[in-house]
Structure formats: C-alpha cells, structure tokens
Design goal:
- The chain is an alpha+beta fold and 252 residues long.
- It is 25% helix and 33% strand.
- It contains seven helices and twelve strands.
- It is globular.
C-alpha cells in the first residue's frame, strides 16, 4: 500500500508541474543547432592557394579579416576565397605564423556575412562540446560542411618552433578542414583553429614513403592517405590564437 501511495504522490506532482518538461534551454547554453544558425554556414570559406595547389578552410573574423592555417597559404601572397554562394574574392596574406600555424588574410572586397568572435576565456575544459565547419578532402561543393565533437585532450606537435601544445578533438577533422573555426557550443565563440587529422605513421612506413617521394607510387600513396577519413583531429589552441591576433594588432 505504501508503494501505491508513493506512486500516487509522484503522479500528482508531475501533473502539477508541466513547465519542467517544457522549459527552454537557457540562452547562455545554446544547442549545436543554435550555434550552427548563429555562427555558420555563410562565414566559412574555401581558401585556395593556386601557386601550390593547396586548399583549406578559413573563417571571417569580426575584424573583417579571414583567419586560416599557415600551411594552407604557404607559398602564396594572394589566395582565392571561395564563398558559400560560389562567388570568389581575392585575399592578401597579411601575416603567416609558421610556429603557431596561423594566417591572417585581408579580402580585397568586403565580405558581408556573420562575424566570428574569439573567446576571451583563459582555459577550456576537456569534454567541452565543440562545433566546426570546413571543406574536407573529396568534398567539392561551395557551402562548408558542419561537424561536431568534443575536446578530448592535449598533444604536443612538432612545429617550426619546436614541440607545441594543440587540442586533440574527438571530431572528424580531415585534410581540407585546416584553417576552419572550432567553436565552443556553450558560448558560440571560437576556441581554436582546425589544423590536422591524427594519422600517425610508423617509422618503417614513413621511411618507405620518404624513399618513394616524388615517384608516381609515392604520390598515389600520399593521396590515398590524405583521403582516409578519421574521427580524431588536432587544433591550434585558444591561447595561441589570442596571441597571434594580439601581435597582429587585432582585438580577438
């Protein structure tokens, strides 16, 4: 009888408080879909460096400039920015930081689209949900592809300035995503820049590829490796992005 009495009390309580099930999420914690609508599809561009046949991603910062990866624009003073509507704008590379793997591009024509803001946070917790946009290898349409995942941890990557910390993302960061924004879903602000997928080679495999460098079979193997889709990637960390912009005389 006590069990039936407890059930009756619980049913009465739930019936009297329907607002609990209908309450919207607080505006300070938007869903991934809300983040997508706000930050989105109109403000991430394909970055094309014709001189080296390199392609990647970039996003429109609130300064009016486009942020991308240094390795995407390496060897180019001018790049092509292909917008989601298929229009193309010429971009001048203002600054390229090989140590941080970041680049700042000034469009020669003003781009009217929503602007991304960089987070002012001093840290990001592992497990934070993130969203990202970009142009992974094999995808040729004009609008960027959306993805989501989590900050999984930290790694140290060899760069021109030595070993540098980068985010590890449990997300499908692949070749072509480099330079795209990594957005914290909770705030809708950028906390990093996609830089590479995690596809390490064994020492023996790397030595074999090095021996085949420049040969047709070596080029084919590198192409196939580049097209393999993985679900773990790395990103430039927030502190490096903030420092890069500050040194460029631009407020995050």
């Amino acid at each position: 009888m006590r069990v039936f009495g407890a059930i009756a009390v619980l049913v009465t309580f739930l019936a009297a408080t329907p607002a609990l099930a209908e309450s919207p999420l607080p505006s300070s914690a938007p869903t991934v879909a809300q983040t997508s609508r706000r930050a989105g599809i109109a403000s991430v561009f394909r970055v094309i460096c014709s001189a080296t046949q390199s392609e990647g991603s970039g996003f429109l910062h609130r300064s009016g400039n486009v942020i991308s990866s240094e390795h995407v624009v390496r060897g180019c003073q001018q790049v092509t920015l292909r917008l989601p509507n298929n229009n193309e704008v010429v971009g001048e590379v203002l600054r390229a930081d090989r140590v941080r793997d970041l680049a700042l591009i000034a469009p020669t024509t003003r781009i009217r689209a929503p602007l991304f803001s960089i987070s002012a946070a001093t840290s990001v917790e592992v497990g934070s949900q993130i969203a990202f946009w970009g142009f992974p290898g094999g995808y040729n349409d004009a609008p960027p592809l959306f993805g989501a995942g989590y900050v999984a941890g930290l790694t140290y990557t060899a760069t021109a300035g030595g070993r540098r910390p980068q985010w590890v993302l449990n997300a499908a960061i692949n070749q072509g995503n480099s330079g795209g924004p990594v957005v914290l879903v909770e705030t809708g602000e950028v906390i990093g820049v996609a830089v590479s997928k995690m596809a390490p080679l064994s020492p023996a495999s790397k030595a074999m590829l090095d021996e085949l460098d420049g040969q047709p079979i070596g080029l084919l193997l590198k192409e196939l490796r580049g097209q393999v889709q993985l679900v773990v990637g790395t990103a430039v960390m927030l502190g490096d992005l903030q420092g890069f912009l500050s040194e460029s005389g631009i407020a995050p």
